[in-house]
Design brief:
262 residues; Rossmann fold; two-stranded antiparallel ribbon; 2 domains; single chain; 41% helix
Length: 262
């Protein structure tokens, strides 16, 4: 078993949410859906949380090999096949998914699967961007996901911004032009951005839910030295809606949903 890797700030928020839930509900069974390499699963289990993982391990990622090397694949982490997660109905009290739902082909089917896996009264924490987010976070180019797929305008726009120094994972392609080709192909293949109205309608069909970006904003501010006062300020009633609205446009939605008790 390899050492538990350091988590980024968003995974640290998810882990903190999980700790707080488990403290209030001892013995809770928890699933990280779309767990990738299993870093969050490893971190949670190191703290004696009853945390399992599941992932489809799609071809656009190398995380399956990482999960296998960790020793968790096949035990704490299961592989999803044909949209079915290999756990019985009502297996979990809390399901986590961090930057996952913008990758699923069928949002309704995925939420139906969450509903099946959750025990009555269980919670679902979802963090993911909607279509109106300004920056395409996977490749780091603003508005890249707003253009029609395959359009020449999108290609030249993305290429130009990459030449100006924008973009992520720059070392993966030999030239700026090839980078634009590769990254646009990646987002066309592996992302499915949806309008907020479509997202909210799908969640409403299966759950009671609320947007909770303020919790994440406060956590992120408190994670950096010298931001305590700012974290308190965004909690004021006049500022918090503005902070949340800006965050949704710049980053992602944070949704906490609950399955109806019996």
């Amino acid at each position: 078993m390899t050492a538990t890797p350091q988590l980024d700030v968003t995974n640290r928020f998810v882990l903190d949410f999980t700790r707080r839930y488990a403290a209030l509900h001892p013995g809770s069974r928890i699933l990280d859906y779309g767990c990738g390499a299993g870093h969050l699963v490893a971190a949670g289990r190191a703290e004696a949380l009853n945390l399992s993982g599941a992932d489809v391990f799609y071809s656009g990622s190398q995380t399956r090999a990482d999960a296998a090397r960790s020793g968790l694949l096949g035990t704490a982490i299961r592989e999803i096949a044909a949209s079915h997660t290999p756990f019985p109905d009502a297996s979990f009290h809390l399901i986590l998914n961090n930057q996952v739902l913008e990758h699923v082909d069928d949002l309704d089917a995925t939420l139906r699967e969450f509903h099946r896996l959750l025990a009555p009264g269980g919670l679902l924490l979802s963090l993911f961007p909607s279509r109106d987010v300004l920056r395409e976070g996977h490749i780091g180019i603003p508005f890249a996901h707003w253009f029609p797929p395959g359009s020449a305008a999108r290609f030249y726009y993305t290429w130009a911004l990459r030449r100006l120094g924008l973009g992520t994972w720059k070392q993966q392609s030999p030239t700026c032009r090839q980078w634009a080709v590769d990254k646009l192909r990646w987002i066309d293949t592996y992302t499915r951005y949806r309008a907020r109205r479509e997202i909210f309608r799908a969640f409403t069909h299966y759950f009671q839910w609320d947007l909770t970006e303020l919790d994440y904003i406060r956590f992120r501010l408190l994670a950096r030295p010298g931001r305590r006062l700012l974290a308190r300020l965004v909690g004021f009633s006049l500022l918090s809606p503005l902070a949340c609205a800006a965050f949704r446009k710049l980053a992602f939605l944070v949704i906490v949903a609950r399955k109806e008790p019996r």
